[in-house]
Structure prediction request, 133 residues.
Amino acid sequence: MSTSARYTREIPQRYRLEAAKCKGCSKLFFPPRLICDECGGKEFEPHRLSDKGKVVSYSVVRIGPSQFVEQVPYIVSVVELEDGVRLTCQVADAKPEELEIGAPVTIEFRKIGEEGDAGIIHYGYKAVLDRFK
Prediction:
């Protein structure tokens, strides 16, 4: 999917790990929503999510799509942040045998890939194991 660099840089949840917090009941939404499914509220405020979390589930990708073929095997994980929000992301700098359910991780802003002849770089978040915890 091709997107302009300016558009993707304007998405706070992608580049600042930012959720929407309902002003009525304080429920967090990542990515943001227009209506709170808890109280029906329509007013939200930005909430910076913690970059610390733990691995809830993971899968090892051994045959990846063409743009990731040089990275196989790589790990895709569901991470639960300290705020309770769960997100799916790649686990960077780790081998499959190093990962386990419950492992502590830190979310980092990293290069995801490049697009087109101009080499437009796409960034996003990846999980990195906290090896010394």
